Amino acid sequence: MFSNKLLFKISAILLFLVAAFSYAFMLDDPKKPDESRFTAVTLTRPGELDEPNTFEVLSDGRVLISERKGAIKLFDPLTKLVKTIATLPVNTKYTSATGKVTEAEEGLMGLTVDPDFNKNHFIYTFYAPLTEKKWKLTRWKFENDALVAGSEKVLLEFATQREVCCHTGGGMTWDAKHDLYLTVGNNTASLLSASTDENPGKESRDDQRGTANTNSLLGKILRIHPEANGTYSIPAGNLFPKGTPQTRPEIYTMGHRNPWRPSIDSKTGWLYWGDIGPDATDDTEQSPRGYDELNQARKPGFFGWPYFVGPNAAVPVFNYVDGELGEKKDPLKPINKSVNNTGLKELPPVAPAFIYYPYAVSAEFPLVGSGSRSSVGGPIYHRADRPLAKRPWPAYYEGKWLATDLARGWIMAIGMKANGDYKDMEQVVPAYHPIEPIDIKFGPDGDLYVLEYGSVWFGKSDNAKLVRIEYNAGNRKPTVMAATNVQGGTIPLKITLSSAGTSDADGDALKYSWKVTTTGTPAKLYPTANPAITLTKAGVYMATLTVTDAKGASNSKSVKIIAGNEAPAVNVDLSGNRSFYFNDKPLGYNVTVTDKEDGSLVAGTIPAAQVSMSVNYTSEGFDYVQVAQEQSSVDASTQFAVAKALMASSDCKNCHSVKDVNIAPSFTDIANKYKGNDTEIERLAHAIHGGTGGRWNKPIAMPAHPAISIADAHTIVNYIMNVSNNNINTMPVKGAFTPKAVADDNNNGSYIIRAAYTDKGNKNIPKQTSTSTIILHNPTVIAATAPIIKNAFVKVNNLDGSTNIIGRQNGYVAFKQIDLTGIKQVQLSGYATALENNPGGTIEVHIDSPTGALLGKGQFEQTAIKPKTQNWVKTPLAETVGMHDIYFVFKNDKAKAIDPLVIFNSVKFEE
Q1: CA-CA distance, 590 to 733, in Å (whole number)?
Q2: What is the pLDDT of residue 46?
């Protein structure tokens, strides 16, 4: 018999094994967490940060932040304040051969804390000193919220050139052995062709002198071991053993252009980082197109630049002496023959890129999107790295790489196979849209911290900030929606406050409380969900709805009310259909505006010149919601809401401002240079879409934006050309326009008809803006886009990629609120084949319900095989006017209930 002590040990072992197995199973097949469990919390206030670039979270929750201009700042989570603890004298400029002084990517570029910080209080900085052309990696002692005077120790320094821009690196991280990794940029001019200029005096344009030079620290990721006395030793296992002639033993990986934020996988010891690639838009004989890379190094290696990029696409060595195109290197045995090379000629074999993507849509990694790119990198998540975390992220992310891109503003969770190869990716918290995320890492509390550089390059951005993304595994705060039935009006103002749309992800009972405030009047409380109130004093009111769940968690949202000035009423009357446009058929319109205080357009008390009327064609995929959101400001009265919405959904703000100097010319400067020049204006639209080398002596080229159609690019250019134009009206308030086929577009887009008026206000009461927007869609509608699908299913045809609806008996698809005025017939595209077991049938057209009035029907007979061309069935409709829900109902009384009757693709509405 076993003793009690032995039984206790066996039980403990069994419990441990069960727990370990359960945890392993959880990691193998964890459930994806609902996005509502993540909350992005902004920690810093607008204007507190000025070009932030790296940060570290201390064990007590305080955060050290470095800024390019030399400041080191400290965020205190208790006071919620940011203070400057030190300012290093750093260089932030470069001076060209002509003497022109320009902002560079130099400055204070990196900061990290020692793994034993709680014992030794060491922090490390990587910066360009003001008076010396070099980079310095130094160590400081940080105590009592300050750098200790005289404590700086220089671990490592090396020369830099300051004649041309760019690329500095500056990211740092640590491994389990407390070895320090430092990324170093190539410090070389950005060229669309190979950066291999060997002309005398052009060394700063030759990456072979640094990045591909085994005897240089430029374009490398270094690995050193800091020692207690302020020096460093070389860990075993770097790329070149210590003492190897013509090499630097600090090099761990080489062949980088601008490596940014490195991280170490604590389980494997592998290194991960982002690397920013060259700017070439297209593949040419001179150079392949540029790619950014998110890389993985399982061991030291050479990652190709300047001879290879992306999918190891070879970059021919361009001979800048005679202008001829040179050789392509052998990736298995690359040779550096440059006259500027001081290292080994034969380089290690080229390691493959892990993830790579161009300006255009990536065929291999389509989720990364398109347009500007600036890969950053990020951490590998392991729960065990933070055993005391208060809010650990869920097991779903275990072992995944959370990487970000500064220009595209996404965070991807990159999954890997058991052997470490790429498996998949998906966007993390897609509702969170960081503004140029430049550093990202987990803190000891378990939260993911994101540092947002902000929208102005080489300048202070009010939207630069530090954000903490918290995961809530327990009770979630309610999601609050607050609205009013009117946005304001004359007094006494009777108004209904609405909480419609408020919800709780956990299904808890909710308690509602409204607080209405205005200056000079005591606040009033209303403890109901949708109170009706009366405001008797003119002024601006803030109505704040606070919703509390049964467990005490609360959330709030506010809405502004303007009492004492009634919002204008704006309407656009159309002479034709209000749902669809028909090319080459004129459409009349008439704008009406009335305002209680200002009068009306028809009476002449509101001048037509003060009413904005515009018609814009937008390509397929345009987000109409963004135009509606423009109504929140007086600026909605301008005619450029569509252009602004297009730019807001792209990366324009990364480089351009309306008036201020950024890394690209201001819109005002562009307008002043090109206005009236139709040839250049046409070129600008194509430059936005396809990219360009630039004509403004700026350090970067205009990237391609293939997701922006030429038609939408013309809309943006029209705004730029009129950015300083104070005339808000582009079209008469009464007239007609004729839709036309748009060149360089698939013509599946829409026309946005929009009228807006901002009233004059009422004494001290603010102005109010009202808009009227009509969206006319292409008359051909894909059936699978219907918001209602019943007893039918969506299927993608693997042969042609089309998306279809497969309908069963009495199944249907329905579209909401379609204007049938003037619609005489529809054409239905579909087919039924014996090969796919479709018995065929009828598609009936009903309005307002699946059993509502029958307007017409189309018959689909079974065929042997799919028709070679699109099969359209003309279906005349009974005359109907006005807006209706329209149902397409599948019928075949002889078929079985489960039979897939017809494969339905699209419907074309015709006058």
Answers
A1: 6
A2: 84
Does residue 593 sit within a domain?
A: yes
DSSP string, 463-481: T-EEEEEEE-SSPPPPB--
| Domain limit, last residue, from 504, 528, 563 | 563
Q: Exposed, middle or buried by CB within 10 Å (0-12, 13-18, 19+), for 361?
A: middle
CA gap 637, 441 in Å, rounded: 42
Helix axes 710-721, 641-648, angle to 10 degrees: 120
| CATH number of the domain where residue 591 is located | 1.10.760.10
What was the pLDDT predicted at 496? 97
| 883-895 burial code (b ≥16 CB/10 A, e <16) | ebbbbbbbbbeeb
For residue 368, the 8-state DSSP code is: G
Q: Copy the structure tokens of residue 789.
A: 């699908």
Q: Do residues 522 and 629 both lie within one domain?
A: no
**The sheet that has 375-377: what strands, in order across it?**
375-377, 401-405, 411-416, 422-427
- 765 shares its domain with 849: no
- Is the distance from CB of 828 to CB of 873 less than 8 angstroms? yes
Please state, in angstroms and rounded to a whole number, the distance separating the CA atoms of residues 422 and 432: 25
CA angle 552, 555, 561 (to 5 degrees): 135
Q: Which residues contact 171 (CB under 8 A, 6 or more apart)?
A: 54, 110, 182, 183, 259, 260, 261, 262, 273, 377, 439
Residues 796 and 720 in one domain: no
- Which ranges of the chain have pLDDT less than 50? 1-29, 629-638
292 bridge partner residues: 357
Same domain? For 601 and 736 the reply is yes
Q: Please name the residues in contact with 168: beta carbons below 8 A apart, sequence gap of 6 or more.
A: 105, 106, 109, 128, 135, 184, 185, 187, 258
The whole-angstrom separation of Cα 632 and Cα 535 is 22
Q: What does DSSP say about strands 251-254 and 301-302: parallel, antiparallel, or unpaired? A: parallel
Model pTM greater than 0.85?
Answer: no
Give residue 21's pLDDT.
38
- The CA R_g of the chain, rounded to the nearest whole Å, is 32
Please check whether residues 555 and 601 belong to one and the same domain: no
Q: Which of 91, 78, 41, 82 is nearest to 64 (CA)?
A: 82
**Is 102 in contact with 699 (CB distance < 8 Å)?**
yes
Q: Do the beta carbons of residue 112 and residue 140 sit within 8 Å?
A: no
Q: What pLDDT is recorded for position 27?
A: 40
Quote the domain boundaries for residue 596.
569-777
How does pLDDT run across 583-615, given as a tens digit for each residue?
999 999 999 999 999 999 999 999 998 888 888
Assess whether 602 and 681 both reside in one domain: yes
CATH of the domain at 557: 2.60.40.10
Which pLDDT value is given to residue 393? 96
User: Which amino acid, 343?
Assistant: G
At 879, the amino acid letter reads E
Supply the pLDDT for residue 715: 75
Q: Report the pLDDT value the prediction gives residue 148, as an integer from 0 to 100.
A: 95
Look at the block and give the residue holding tokens 């991807």. Answer: 412
- Claim to verify: residue 792 and residue 652 sit in the same structural domain: no
- Residues whose CB is less than 8 angstroms from the CB of residue 486 and which lie 6 or more positions away in sequence, other chains included: 495, 567
3-state class (DSSP) for residue 683: helix
Contact between 600 and 606 (Cβ < 8 Å): yes
246 near 308, Cβ under 8 Å? no
> Quick one: which of 170, 147, 169, 154 has its CA closest to 72?
147
Q: Are 828 and 907 in contact (CB under 8 A)?
A: yes
Preceding peptide of 492 cis, ω within 30°: yes
Give the torsion sign (CA, 731, 733, 738, 743).
positive
Q: Of 157, 348, 332, whose CA–CA distance to 239 is shortest?
A: 348
The dihedral through the CA atoms of 433, 436, 439, 444 has a sign that is negative
Whether residue 765 is contained in a domain is answered as yes
Measure the CA–CA gap between 711 and 744, rounded to whole angstroms: 7
How far is it, in rounded angstroms, from Cα 304 to Cα 350? 5
